[in-house]
Amino acid sequence: MVDLERTKKEMKAAAPPAISYEDERYPYGTCLRFEKSEMDKLGLDASKLAVGQKMEIRAIGEVTNISSHESTTGEDQSCAIQITSMSLAYDLGSKGNKAYRDARKSGAGKPE
Questions:
Q1: How many CB atoms lie within 10 A of CB 21?
Q2: Do the Cβ atoms of 62 and 47 come closer than 8 Å?
Q3: Largest CB tally within 10 Å, which of 5, 11, 35, 101?
Q4: How far apart are CA 101 and CA 40, in angstroms?
Q5: How do residues 64-94 score in pLDDT, each as one tens digit?
Q6: Going by DSSP bridges, is the β-strand pair 56-71/74-89 parallel, antiparallel, or unpaired?
């Protein structure tokens, strides 16, 4: 897996002047927020969660947009992926790792 945490240089470059770049450790769009209905579907109970707790996320997504453009400041690329299915695990132990390896062996996440 790839760590998406921004470097201090990336945070400073991405922050508007009025915002402290220390508040923007990860890029926009990498935070998932679930309301009560989604928490219920995913089997999440707020009373069993703690701020700072690590969770394993497994998801299947569909590419919904691909963009590539060139400007006077250089080339840029982006894509949008709509998460269509997801599961969360509280336990990051060996059982979760085995499930992840099994999913990868079965081809989950590979292009069709």
A1: 16
A2: no
A3: 11
A4: 26
A5: 999 999 989 889 888 888 888 888 887 655 4
A6: antiparallel
SS3 content of the chain, % helix, strand, coil (to 5): 30, 30, 45
> Is this prediction's pTM over 0.85?
no
Rounded-to-integer distance, Cα 56 and Cα 91, Å: 8
Alpha carbons 15 and 18: distance in angstroms, whole number: 8
- Say if CB 26 and CB 4 are below 8 A apart: yes
First-to-final CA distance of the chain: 21
What is the rounded CA–CA span in Å between residue 32 and residue 36? Answer: 13
